[in-house]
């Protein structure tokens, strides 16, 4: 994805002055016609959701709009609500020796066609599209429940020959909580005509799993307990 040297950097704790600077930076990006900010505006502000990147960048975008964008990205409905929330969090700030917590990790799959890949994941594997970016799209994300996969378009092969299958180089590992759910998922994918590199199998270490091959050759492991 495109990056910019002066992207806003998150502070250890929410800081209102940093958030104000972030809003001003979004205004400047919009004014300068940076397409990535258009995708963020469309995804977060409902009144822009049906507009294209070009239409968003040509649309009036004031500091108040940018402040609302920052607020909604932080989980608040308005800039005023964000200011109130920041003050509350400041009042109950965590101890200085608290350790950062990683809340989520997302796999990235390399694909040749974002639209075709999204169609596979929605029609065959029961995912839904979170977003796609670009015209035509070159980046996107799909999810099912708490599992999220990022899709990145590449124009050349990333792996040589059949090394992925020979070495079982997994693109992602996805888990369910019970053996019954894993079996049900496997049967659903069989009925959908999914391509399996490995069907449902009991592993020596006690787990059960199967491996799906997507149209781009990415290997997706679905695993759960044996019983």
Molecular structure report:
Strands 1-4-3-2 form a four-stranded mixed β-sheet, with helices on both faces. A four-stranded mixed β-sheet has the order 5-8-7-6, covered by helices on one side. 37% of the residues lie in helices and 24% in strands. It is built from eight helices and eight strands. The two termini are 41 Å apart. It has two domains: 16-91, no CATH class; 107-156 and 165-225, 2,3-Dihydroxybiphenyl 1,2-Dioxygenase, domain 1. It has 227 residues and is of the alpha/beta class. Mean pLDDT is 88; it is low at 1-12.
Helix-strand layout with pairing:
Blueprint: H1 16-32, H2 35-44, H3 53-58, H4 63-73, H5 79-91, E1 107-111, H6 114-123, E2 128-134, E3 137-144, E4 147-153, H7 163-167, E5 170-175, H8 179-191, E6 196-202, E7 207-213, E8 219-225
Parallel strand pairs: 1-4, 5-8
Antiparallel strand pairs: 2-3, 3-4, 6-7, 7-8
Helix pairs in contact: 1-4, 4-5
- H/E topology pattern: HHHHHEHEEEHEHEEE
Q: Could you name the CATH topology of the largest domain? A: 2,3-Dihydroxybiphenyl 1,2-Dioxygenase, domain 1
Query: How is the largest sheet built, in terms of strand order?
Result: 1-4-3-2
Total strand segments:
8
Gyration radius, in Å:
21 Å
Residue share in β-strands: 15-25%
CATH superfamily name of the largest domain? 2,3-Dihydroxybiphenyl 1,2-Dioxygenase, domain 1
Poorly predicted runs: 1-12
Whole-number count of domains: 2
Please state the structural category: alpha/beta
């Amino acid at each position: 994805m495109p990056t910019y040297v002066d992207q806003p950097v998150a502070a250890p704790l929410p800081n209102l002055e940093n958030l104000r600077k972030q809003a001003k930076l979004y205004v400047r990006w919009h004014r300068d016609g940076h397409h990535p900010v258009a995708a963020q505006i469309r995804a977060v502000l409902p009144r822009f959701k049906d507009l294209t990147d070009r239409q968003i960048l040509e649309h009036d975008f004031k500091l108040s709009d940018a402040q609302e964008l920052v607020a909604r990205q932080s989980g608040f409905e308005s800039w005023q609500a964000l200011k109130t929330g920041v003050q509350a969090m400041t009042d109950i700030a965590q101890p200085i020796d608290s350790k950062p917590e990683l809340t989520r990790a997302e796999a990235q799959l390399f694909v040749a066609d974002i639209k075709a890949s999204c169609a596979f994941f929605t029609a065959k594997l029961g995912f839904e599209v979170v977003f796609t970016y670009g015209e035509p799209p070159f980046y996107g994300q799909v999810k099912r429940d708490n599992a999220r996969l990022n899709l990145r378009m590449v124009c050349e092969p990333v792996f040589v020959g059949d090394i992925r299958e020979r070495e079982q180089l997994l693109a992602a590992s996805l888990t369910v909580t019970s053996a019954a759910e894993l079996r049900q998922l496997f049967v659903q994918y069989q009925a959908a005509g999914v391509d399996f590199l490995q069907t449902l199998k009991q592993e020596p270490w006690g787990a059960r799993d199967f491996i799906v091959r997507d149209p781009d050759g990415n290997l997706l492991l679905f695993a759960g307990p044996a019983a």
